[in-house]
């Protein structure tokens, strides 16, 4: 197709989630014409990839999308799934984005004039600049060992999990103890299912400490505003697993040791399947201990903040284990167990194969500085730690979007000045 005879936009946004619509909001504020392309429906992941009892793990007051702050009557509570969907529907209505849903982007590549050609399932468009706001959670990860498991074992990814009743009768193995794994294990446990949990290296934190939500303390301490360049791990922090905690029933800690006391079976990292046996690493004790060290370390940082600021608060405390593994169970005969289903909670991998631009590192992850890449006109938005810890949350994605849109506007102004000269 002749590149001069297709629809053209100054900016095309790929992805219609909260990141893409935040960018659309700020582009509208600056009067910049644009198009949003979404392969499913706007905000679809919150409805289609969350379980029935899902709720936020950060307080409602942190929900502050552009022009759409939380306005409910429970700022310190945690919105449930239907409330989150209603909040996001209200945001979309306010933004009123120029969006095309059900459109898959197949390729973004350079145009001969220096812009970009965006090939989609509904035809091609061109753009001067492209904002990639599709996130980094594209392909659910299920290990290849799953192919060798008996056909009688039902297997789903956390993105497909809705509730305990969708799984066949019997015991359930949950693999992974990050936010989704820990919360899904709890959901099944509370539903009365016998749960086996293969624990990973995810850290944990307290829900409440010394009279306040830990998130509120950390916000006051500036943790959510710390740029990635100032973090001790620098860009390496982007590979960290999120802390597990829950907002369920008003919010509480998730303590895997307590679950063990209540009958949940804990194992170390699942590493293989051989001759009918699941094999686990002998690292359960060390994983639990490390999670507790993080928990106590965060609380100690809060203690220091309280002392330095002279804040009156309830006395400090240190978590002490309520359960210890008697031994490391390194194998489980699957056939003789009562396990009938497995929920894989080991995350997602990014898939940016459709983006033909030299903006990726050796691991296939985007290289950028606050969302701006070395390729003029290509931006990323909505990734974890794009700029700060808050970048992947409702509270800070709008700030990141405003920064990128300011850069876009400046570039368009320069281009206009150059063409007029």
Automatic annotation (TrEMBL):
Pfam families named in the record: Pyr_redox_3
Gene3D superfamilies: FAD/NAD(P)-binding domain (3.50.50.60)
Keywords: Oxidoreductase
Coiled coil segments of this chain: none
InterPro entries referenced in this protein's UniProt entry, alphabetically: Auxin_biosynth/cation_transpt, CHP04046_FMN-dependent, FAD/NAD-bd_sf
NCBIfam families, per database record: MSMEG_0569_nitr (TIGR04046)
Protein name: MSMEG_0569 family flavin-dependent oxidoreductase
Species classification: Bacteria, Pseudomonadati, Pseudomonadota, Alphaproteobacteria, Hyphomicrobiales
